Amino acid sequence: MSAPWAARPGDDVLADLADLRRADPPTHGGRVLSYVYDSGRADLDDVAARAVTLFLPVNGLDPTTFTSVAALESRLVARARDVLHGGPDTVGSVTTGGTESCLLAVKSARDTWRAADPSRAHARPTLVLPTTAHPAFHKAAAYLDLDVVAVPVDPDRGTPDAAAVLAALDERTALVVVSAPSYPFGVVDPVAEVAAGAAARGVACHVDACIGGWVLPWWGHDVPAWDLAVDGVTSISADLHKYGFAPKGASVVLYRDPARHRAQHFATTAWPGYPVVNPTVLGSRSAGGLAAAWAVLETLGHDGIATLVARTRDATAHLHDAATATRGLRVVGRPTGPLLALATDDTAPAADRVDPFHLVDALRHRGWLAQAQPALTQPDGTVLPRTAHLTITPVTQHVADDLAAALDDAATAVRGRAPATPDPALAQRVLTDGLPPDLAGVMATLEALPPDVVRPLLVEVLARAVAPRL
Ligand SMILES: *Cc1c(COP(=O)(O)O)cnc(C)c1O
User: Quick one: DSSP state of residue 119?
Assistant: First the structure.
């Protein structure tokens, strides 16, 4: 046991926190091209912070006691229902994030599937998804005892054939998932075809619009139908803490049929305490994210979002062109929305090729954080390429020329370099010494090792990063 800690003045403690924050990458200014979504409007950050402060002491556990929570959730769900083209019966919940929204959609589908037939009461259903679906669904399947059936996507387009997805559906399928767009490649799956085919087979269909839900509605007319306007879509998720510019901790999940929303809930009286009813995963929960999300949407208005999306689209087009013009690089598929995945142009001579992992390191040296995405061998043996992922936000527009120049400069620095290769010794070294400054070798090693080896390694790296020191 260490000695009890001594009290310190609050200002000291806060200075300490500010020190810690200084070591973080900049969350504003567009240099971090994943994780953070910068509207570029300081007034929105201010409104969000004040809303969080106002709701800090509230417990979202019981909206019948804290009626402010019920009112805000009702308003936010109504707003999302409008934006995502739900009908008058569409209902849903505000959750703490995309993972929770997806998890709840899977729980609702599993319980609805089981309730449809007494012989299924304890059976294990399947969850059908393209290989590009978000890991939140693998997590949901692991937590909730479903088997994942992964359908390959076309390596050039990044989307699956609707027919292949539908061929995977059978009596065991509780839910099929499509993305609008998918995170790795930013392309929209064939939502209408999959949803129609699923409906014809009596299978529920979830659209994961966690990243697209608050940007595609304003993107323009060249977006194929993807939301609740599509027949056969039974549920949809859309994160407010991405392109809704709320602080982390806010997402919505909506259901066309109220019965599916009810199936998401948990209720019990099997204890001597208060009657429990939880719509979402948590018990006691902050209402800060909810309040901030509402405040930001109201401050923006429909037109405010349109302006931010126009900036985002402009910047995305600029970077798409810049990446395409970069010798040895290509953009995967035809993205719809603000995400780009950059892969090696394999049609270029080896001396001209740019390896995405080296590119990510070279960009980091220049002050830009792109995200390395390892290659994936699909169930049919085809391989999705390793890529560098860029999430474009409204603020990117202000720095788009700088970013395009950095991309060119970084590509020039690594052009012709042999692609990063695995080094099993590196895995061990990461465990003892932590992550090296250049990550290309680590990423190539993770990419090459069998999943059963990689998973415990990832767990160990993270667990050690947050292990108690002193
Ligand atoms: C971000 C994201 C999720 C998960 O959301 P979290 O908020 O990170 O939990 C799910 N699906 C897609 C497509 C996403 O981009």
Answer: G
* Cα–Cα nearest to 340, from 217, 158, 218: 158
Pocket test for ligand 1, best of 208, 243, 340 (most atoms within 8 A of CB): 208
- Pocket lining: 339 vs ligand 1, CB cutoff 6 Å: no
pLDDT tens by residue, 94-150: 999 999 999 999 999 999 999 999 999 999 999 999 999 999 999 999 999 999 999
Which one-letter DSSP state was computed for residue 129?
A: E
| Dist CA 326 CA 352 (whole Å) | 10
Write the pLDDT tens digit of every residue in 226-245.
Answer: 999 999 999 999 999 999 99
Distance 134 CA to ligand 1 centre (A): 7
Residue intervals in the chain for CATH 3.40.640.10: 50-296
What pTM was computed for the model? 0.97
DSSP state of 90: -
Integer angstrom CA distances of residue 170 from 104, 113, 173, 174: 22, 12, 5, 9
CB atoms within 10 A of CB 349: 10
Starting from the edge strand earliest in sequence, which strands make up the sheet with 371-373, in order?
A: 329-331, 339-344, 387-391, 371-373
Helix extents (H) in 84-190 = 98-115, 135-144, 162-167
The answer to whether 371 and 186 have CB atoms below 8 angstroms apart is no
Going from the Cα of 392 to the center of ligand 1, the distance in angstroms, rounded, reads 15
CATH 2.10.109.10 fits 50-296, yes or no: no
* Cis geometry, peptide bond prior to residue 57 (ω within 30 degrees of 0): no
Is 239 touching ligand 1 by the criterion CB < 6 Å? yes
